[in-house]
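Sequence in, structure out.
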Amino acid sequence: MAEQTAPPESTGAPGAISAGPPGPAAEVRPEKPDAAVVRDALGVGIAVGLSGFAFGVTSAGSGLSLLQTCVLSLLVFTGASQFALVGALAAGGNPYTAAAGAFFLGVRNAFYGLRLSQLLALPRAVRPFAAHWVIDETTAVTLPQPTRRAARIGFTVTGLTLYVLWNLTTLVGALGAEALGDTDAWGLDAASPAVFLALLAPMLRSTTERVTAGLAVLLALTLLPVLPAGVPVLLSALAAPVVLFLMGRAKRGPGTGDEDDAVTQRKKGGRRS
């Protein structure tokens, strides 16, 4: 988790979190009871944590040993990246390509950390341990909380519940993979991506976010049949700069560049006179 660069501004309510500067337009959200935060956090942690069983089965089915499977969940602990890694290996992909795809898919957690660091403002000694729990689910529970206390409770309960359950169910899934037989026939590899999409979809509020997500999916599906396993995931990240570039040009409109040049020339002329 990134170090805190600036303390968040107060909204006027005790411990309230504000995304912008204080003032009449600042949003003041009412405090949320601790029990409600814990309930929401447990709901997410339990629902997603149980899908570790699917990872354990999928990982064992792709050829990884019990120890390798459990170490992945203990040390990596980011479901989408773990599924991307074992999925690429199962498809016969190069181990380095598979690892690169999993790594870049997990880079998003670093950006989560930049925001969560400001919201949580944890003691410096705790941050390295908290960074391990900076994932999609803890971020989804923490960000909507109205106060720092609620954010810390949501983050801690979600992270602890999910970490314990994910690792336990990973172990159970890996041990039970042989009893299930053909793991591909069960379609368990789709469980974690389905949960991830369910959490992600409500966060795609703007047109830019929806277009970026749609283009990334289109790129991945188009490139999947023609490129080695793991590479389409890497290249789908190109959707973000492409959409931002096109949206920027659309906002500027045609002829904006010429107008800017004319303004620049007028300013230069004014200085000379």
